[in-house]
Design goal:
The protein is of the alpha+beta class. The protein has ten helices and five strands; from the N terminus they run H-H-H-H-H-H-H-H-E-E-E-H-E-E-H.
Length: 228
């Protein structure tokens, strides 16, 4: 209830912020799947995907959903981009880099997911320090995290096996991190990450694979889209 009142007060002070939050929900409704863009709200009964399980707009309920092959590929590309909170140009670089290695690697799809999962902003989110990748990107940009003891404020920075990601000492008392710390013991970590709650630091134990990550996206369609 308190959080709800705070959101309402914030929206009154900043109407633009309210519109942006609603826009994120429309992205999921248009994609017809949850992309978890708003943290805890996405798992609550108030999630618009639960309340309004159809595309936004006047025609939303009447849309049959037929898409051409190109339309399907475009939709899958947009879903992956929103999932990892990337700009179109950034995702394009990731995909085309993997496509150049096709035939040289055992599994190109797993390689793409591995590269995306090992972005610093995604690792911060996976460790439980942020409720969404959007929030994780902001926190990294503001310089709250260290890699192997050195400050790093580049969300796209790729972490390596053995790297230690920790919260800056001066940031630990901030309210946003105090709230996150209270939830860390309940968070489920992927197998390739390890978290030391007492030290508030995570370690990259290995490489994520496609089987370790549940993403509502058909990666082959994305490869086809960028192969045009």
């Amino acid at each position: 209830m308190v959080a709800g009142r705070q959101d309402q007060e914030e929206n009154k002070r900043n109407p633009k912020n309210s519109k942006m939050k609603k826009a994120k929900c429309k992205i999921c409704r248009r994609a017809k799947t949850k992309l978890f863009l708003k943290g805890d709200k996405c798992t609550s009964p108030k999630c618009p995907m639960v309340v309004k399980p159809y595309a936004p707009g006047v025609q939303g309920k009447r849309t049959k959903g037929f898409l051409s092959e190109y339309g399907v590929q475009l939709r899958e590309t947009q879903k992956l981009r929103q999932w990892y909170n990337l700009k179109e140009g950034s995702l394009k670089k990731y995909v085309r880099n993997v496509l150049t290695k096709r035939g040289k690697v055992e599994d190109a799809q797993s390689l793409l997911i591995q590269n995306l999962e090992k972005r610093l902003d995604n690792v911060v989110y996976r460790l439980g320090f942020a409720v969404s990748r959007i929030e994780a990107r902001q926190l990294v940009t503001h310089g709250h995290f260290l890699i192997n003891g050195k400050k790093n404020n580049i969300p796209s920075c790729s972490v390596k096996n053995g790297d230690v990601i920790s919260l800056k000492e001066s940031s630990k008392k901030r309210k946003i991190f105090q709230e996150a710390i209270a939830k860390l013991s309940k968070s489920q970590l992927p197998g390739w990450l390890k978290l030391d709650i007492k030290k508030l630091e995570g370690t990259v134990m290995g490489d994520p694979s496609l089987g370790d990550v549940t993403i509502p996206v058909e990666i082959s369609s994305i490869f086809e889209f960028y192969s045009r």
